[in-house]
Structure formats: structure tokens, C-alpha cells
Amino acid sequence: MTTTSKDPILVVLQLTGGNDYLNTVIPYTNPLYRDNRPVVGVAEDRVLPLDDKVGFHPEMGPMKTIYDRGDMAIIHGVGYPNSPRSHFRSMDIWHTCEPDKLGTEGWLGKATKDIDPNKENVLTSVAFGASLFRALVLPGVPVAVVDDLDTYGLLPGISEQTQRARILDRFARLYSPAIGTGAVMDYLGQTGLDTLEGADILKQAPQMYSSSVEYPDTVISKRLKGIAQIHMANLGTRIFYVDHGSFDSHSNQVGMHDKLWQDVSQGVECFFDDLKEHGVGDNVIMLMFTEFGRRTHDNGSGTDHGAGGAAFVLGEKVKGGQYGEYPSLESRDLEQGDVVPNHDFRGLYSTILEDWMHLDAKPIVEGSFEKFPYLG
Questions:
Q1: Which among 93, 97, 339, 371 could bridge 351 via Cys, Cβ 3.0 to 4.6 Å?
Q2: Following DSSP, what letter does each residue of 19-55 receive, concatenated?
Q3: Residue 194, C-beta contacts closer than 8 angstroms, at least 6 positions apart
Q4: Which of 91, 98, 93 is nearest to 290 (CA)?
Q5: How far apart are CA 208 and CA 278, in angstroms?
Q6: What is the pLDDT along the chain (376 residues), one digit of tens a residue?
Q7: What is the DSSP string of 269-289?
Q8: Which residues contact residue 350 at a Cβ distance below 8 angstroms, ignoring those fewer than 6 apart?
Q9: What is the CATH T-level fold of the domain 9-365, as seen in this structure?
Q10: Using alpha carbons only, what angle is made at residue 99 by residues 98 and 104, rounded to the nearest 5 degrees?
Q11: Which residues contact 52 (CB under 8 A, 6 or more apart)?
């Protein structure tokens, strides 16, 4: 008997730097929002309403289109207890699911191993970026990493080597101070060469691709287009990872945040339009997350590091809508001036791992956590 079922695909888009929750999913009818955002608050007539309580940032029009057709779940108040409000430490927690100690194994590295335990496909996981993402790192598990698919392989023997050296060097310099040179070198020694070997195969993907969708000329759009190209090349990739930023909006937030969401929203819309045009989007979801939200009260120019944030899950098979409660903005309910997370990020991961990827989440996220029914 033949089957037409397709393997589920996960695309992770990391909003690096701490995206401002309150100016992304805006509680525009709550007077406390106005009180706390005298400088960076978005005017009510610019908000894109989702209902009578919250609305999107005005540059998120393409995201609202996806939400309105029922292909987006907004998960409110995502985070974890006792946020350290440190970029590196918080992202490390998100990457390893270890909030109480320094983790060494990436959650998607574990998932990749479960999907392909015998390393039959070096392209099971593919990352786009200037460095390896810790979420994908697990000794013995290969990850193909490409900085720019458009230029990769155009200068044989030069471009590939340059990209590989830069990616590995950045990973080593980023993580050696935290987990020690020995641990990083052990990883690179075991899987460093293997890690980028699969990128050689990826050179064929752009040549196999044709589309009427015109992506904007931005970094995130180019990388999302690269993911679409690889997905359509049927190379067996199950997990894609990419980031964009920095969303670290301590100052000059208004123009900065506008541009970031303009680029992300346009790129994401083109990505899903591309998949739809080719009829290959029904087995793809995208997770968008950030390491923490930002301080409730602005600082006169921007917003400082916070705690609770929002995550988004997009795709044709997503049960759209809003999940969880928007955290209270009442001063008595804030911690260190931040909204308090009310949905553990490991529950977010568990939903995706179990209800989409059909994997056992408990050993990956180190326990059982509340899930919401936006998948399955």
C-alpha cells in the first residue's frame, strides 16, 4: 500500500535580541499600556486590531493577513521563571531547556538525533546564519550550516571554505567563554567537519528552483528564500533554523522596531506564498520566538530587557487564534518592572515536538509542561 503522507517540517525563526512583546501584540485598549509607553507607545489609530483588546504593530500587515486566514497561533506570556535578563544566558536556556544549570545539548540537536539516529541524512537539519545555533548542537549530530545560499559554491574551493571557517570560528568564540574551550573543541572535533559537509549538497537547490514570488532584498528574506529552495529540492530536511535581529531596542526603538518587523513580516509572507504557489506548504510550520520581552515602562528612547514575551506558530495546519492569557500590566503584578511569563517555553516546544513532529518531548525538554491545542 502506498502512502501520500509527508514528513512534518519545522522552520524556526529566532527573533534575536529580545523582541518587545508590548509593541508587537499591543494591548491597545488597556490604559496601562499608554501610561507605560509615553515615548515608544504605538498610537491607537496605527495599531492593526486583532480583536477589541490587542492588535499588531503597524508594520505587521503581512502577518495580520496570515493571522486573519487562520494560519497563525499567538502564544501569550511565554518565558520561564526568574528570567536573568541576559541575552546570552536566556538564549542558552531557550536552546538547551536547562534554566537551572548550564546546558550543553541543544533541544533540536536531540530532536534531530531522534529523527535520524543513524545519521543517514546529513541534511536532516539545516541552519542559515553566521554561526552554528546552540539549539542544534549535539555531539555526533550533523547540521548543515550556510551563511548565504546565493553565493555558496559560486567560487569553488574558496567560498565554501571561507564560509565554513567563519561559521566554526564564530561558534567557538561565542561559546568557549561559557562552557569552556574543551567542550567546544570536543564538539567541533567530533562533528565540525561533518557539520558542514551537507552544505555541499545544497549547491544544487537554487538551480532546481523557479518561482513567481519576488522576495524583498533583505537578509531575512534571502535566507527564507533559501529555506524554501532547499525544501522544494526534496533533500529530506526536517528542521530549518534561521534568526534575524537585533531586536535589542534600548534606544531609538520606534524606527528600529518598525524596520525589523517590516522586514520579518514581508519575508515570512513571501515564504508562505512561495510554498503555497508550489503546493508544498501543507507539511510546514514556523515557530517564531525571542529570548525575552522587554520592560513594561519605556526608558525615554527605547525599552530595556524584560521577561515575558510572545511566540508565534504559523502554517496551513495551525489552528489559528490566541492561546494563553496576556500577562497583567498592573504594577502589583509586575516583577522588576516586567510582565510575568505564564506559559513555560518548554510547553511550547512540547506541543511542536509531540503534536507536530511526533517525537517524545519529555527527554528533550526535561519534563512535562502545559500544552495548547494549536496543532494536531
A1: 371
A2: --GGGTEE-TT-HHHHHH-TTTPPPGGGSEESSSS-E
A3: 122, 142
A4: 91
A5: 13
A6: 344 589 999 999 999 999 999 999 999 999 999 999 999 999 999 999 999 999 999 999 999 999 999 999 999 999 999 888 888 899 999 999 998 888 889 999 999 999 999 988 888 999 998 777 999 988 888 888 887 777 654 333 435 566 656 666 665 665 555 555 555 555 554 455 555 566 667 877 888 899 999 999 999 999 999 999 999 999 999 999 999 999 999 999 999 999 999 999 999 999 999 999 999 999 999 999 999 999 999 999 999 999 999 999 999 999 999 999 999 999 999 999 999 999 999 999 999 999 999 999 999 999 999 999 999 7
A7: HHHHHHHHHHT--TTEEEEEE
A8: 361, 362, 365, 368, 369, 371
A9: Alkaline Phosphatase, subunit A (3.40.720)
A10: 30
A11: 29
Is the alpha carbon torsion for 121, 289, 305, 65 positive or negative? positive
Cα 163 from Cα 132, distance rounded (Å): 12
Q: Is the pTM of this model over 0.85?
A: yes
Neighbouring residues of 138: CB distance < 8 A, sequence distance ≥ 6: 105, 106, 109, 110, 112, 113
Which one, of 217, 14, 277, 218, lies nearest residue 131 by Cα?
14
Q: Which of 257, 203, 206 is nearest to 15 (CA)?
A: 257
Supply 326's cell numbers: 496576556
Q: In sequence order, what are the beta bridge partners of 14?
A: 243, 289
Q: CA-CA distance, 117 to 359, in Å (whole number)?
A: 13
Residue in this structure with the C-alpha cell 567537519, named with its chain if needed: 193
In DSSP terms, 118 is beta-bridged to: none
Rounded Cα–Cα distance for residues 244 and 338 (Å): 24
Q: How many CA atoms lie within 13 A of 192 on its CB side?
A: 17
What's the angle, vertex CA 325, arms to CA 255 and CA 315, rounded to 5?
A: 70
CA angle 339, 52, 320 (to 5 degrees): 80
C-alpha span between 321 and 92 (Å, rounded): 29
Distance of CA 123 to the CA centre of its chain: 19
CA 89: distance to chain centroid?
A: 17
Return the closest-CA partner of residue 165 out of 199, 140, 135. 199
The amino acid present at 235, given as its one-letter code, is L
Gyration radius of the chain over CA positions: 20
